[in-house]
Amino acid sequence: RLPTIQELVSLVDFTKHSPSINRNNVPKCHSSLYWSATSYADSSNYAWGVYFGDGGANGNYKDVSRYIRLVRNK
Questions:
Q1: pTM reported for the whole predicted model
Q2: CB distance 26 to 11 below 8 Å
């Protein structure tokens, strides 16, 4: 499944940049936007994503191709 925005933001390591993630825990990550499953409250055409270049989270138009990182329940 796609992670929630909270789950995706929890992967951000603000001491790192381009990508802003611990590569020991997540070795394959691009400095790009990754989708979350969380819709943007102001518009159903948008969803939250995290840009792993700097770790910022923002709403993005759903019709744009972006990366995904899947998670599974334990």
A1: 0.88
A2: yes
- What single-letter amino acid sits at 23? R
The full length of the chain comes to 74
10-residue averages of pLDDT along the chain (74 residues)? 95 92 87 94 92 94 93 84
DSSP letter string over 7-70? HHHTTB-TT--SS-B-TTTS----SSEEEEEEEPTT-TTEEEEEETTTTEEEEEETTS--B---
- Return the CA Rg of the chain: 12
Residue located via tokens 């998670």? 71
